[in-house]
Each structure stands twice: as structure tokens, then as C-alpha cells.
Amino acid sequence: MKITTQYNSDYEYTSTTTEGQSVKIDMKDEGKTDMSPMQLVLSGLSGCVAVEVALMIQKRRKKLVDLRIEADGTRQETHPKYFTDIHMVFTLVSTDANKEELEKAIKLAIEGYCSVGSSLKANITYEGVIERP
Q1: Which helix (DSSP H) or strand (DSSP E) does residue 4 occupy?
Q2: Pairing between strand 64-75 and 22-26?
């Protein structure tokens, strides 16, 4: 997987995949029009968990009518301001799945299937290399 992030201004960037999808990144304090990198991380986690929960419910041959996740991330106050806690509230509507089935799907998605969540817990190696045009 490869992403290219392009400078637009000191606090605004555009990240683009090799397939051409893009997202704008906005780190301004005021007049913000797009998500910050940490908001994108929280959105990525919520989206990943949502997909896994939906697929698990469907795999059990249950009907998913609606799914909404409200994610609230608490960050460390000093740099680097990484997430210390993430709290997710699920609103799930299914016509035939019981509460225990939904809770099990959520637990499995968060703890075992969501690659974003696993990446947040992983020991990742980072490297920075400078190339000059």
C-alpha cells in the first residue's frame, strides 16, 4: 500500500493513493475544512470496525438495518499527542440479531479482525529517507 502526501500550505495537505483516491488533511486551528491526521485515524478505526461488524452479522445470516459508531479519542496532553483511550458507542439495528450476537461481533471486530485497531497496538518500524528532485 502506498500513499503520496502533497503540500498545499503549511497546515493543509492532500494524500493520494496509487489508484487515485484522495483525502484532504487540515491541521489549522481555525477555519478548518477537512479532518486532521488524528481525526482520520479515528475515522479509519471506526470504518474498519464497522465493516467487520457488518460482515460478521451478515455471515450469521442476520439482517443489519443500521449501524452507527460514535468514537471519542482521548489524547496524551504532551507531545507526541497519541491516543491513550478510544471509546466507541455503537448504535446497531437488526431485525433478528439479539444483543449477545451484536456484542460478540463488536468484540471480535475490535480485538481480532480490524487491521486499523491492530496497527494502533503494533510495534511498527518507521523509516524516513530524503530524496531531492
Answers
A1: strand 3-9
A2: unpaired
The count of structural domains within the chain is 2
110: Cβ contacts below 8 Å, ≥ 6 apart: 49, 88, 117
User: What are the cell numbers at 44?
Assistant: 479509519
Domain that holds residue 22: 1-31
Can you give the pTM of this predicted structure? 0.90
**Among residues 7, 98, 83, which one has the least CA distance to residue 44?**
83
Q: Please work out, in degrees rounded to the nearest 5, the angle formed at the alpha carbon of residue 118 by the alpha carbons of 59 and 67.
A: 45
Same domain, 114 and 60: yes
Residues 6+ apart with CB under 8 A from 81: 38, 75
Give pLDDT tens digits for 37-51. 999 999 999 999 999
Are 5 and 42 found together in one domain? no
